[in-house]
Design brief:
This protein is of the alpha+beta class. Helices cover about 20% and strands about 35% of the residues.
Length: about 120
C-alpha cells in the first residue's frame, strides 16, 4: 500500500480527475495549497503588475494498493503535464496500514470492495 501525493496546477485538476476515474481510481482527497518555487506568477489588476510570491496549486492525496501505483502515476503524469515550468510533483510514500471504520477491516481490503474487483 502506498500514498501518492501529487501537486498539480489548479487549471489541470478536472483533466487529472477524469484520468484517475478512467484508471479506476475512484476515491481521493484534494486540497487547495500554496507554495514557493522557482516559477512565480504575476497578476495584473487595473494596469498594475503584482508579484504574488506564491504559487496556487492543488494537492491530491491518494492511497492505493501496490498493483495500482503505476496506473495512478501514469494517469496523473499524462493529464497534468503541460510541458512548462511549474507542472508540479508526484511523491510516493509508504503506508503501514489502513482501516475501514465501518467494518473494522484493515490492509488492502479496506481500500476497495472485493465484489467490485475487476
Amino acid at each position: 500500500m502506498k500514498k501518492i501525493e501529487a501537486i498539480i496546477r489548479k487549471t489541470r485538476f478536472e483533466e487529472v480527475k477524469e484520468a484517475l476515474l478512467a484508471a479506476d481510481i475512484e476515491w481521493f482527497s484534494y486540497y487547495d495549497v500554496r507554495g514557493v518555487g522557482k516559477a512565480h506568477q504575476e497578476r495584473i489588476y487595473r494596469g498594475v503588475v503584482y508579484d504574488t510570491s506564491f504559487i496556487e496549486r492543488t494537492l491530491l492525496s491518494i492511497v492505493v494498493r501496490d498493483k495500482n501505483i503505476e496506473k495512478t502515476v501514469t494517469a496523473i503524469l499524462k493529464s497534468a503535464q503541460t510541458g512548462e515550468i511549474g507542472d508540479g510533483r508526484i511523491f510516493i510514500l509508504p503506508m503501514d496500514d489502513s482501516f475501514r471504520i465501518r467494518t473494522g477491516e484493515s490492509g488492502d481490503i479496506s481500500l476497495y470492495n472485493p465484489e467490485n474487483e475487476k
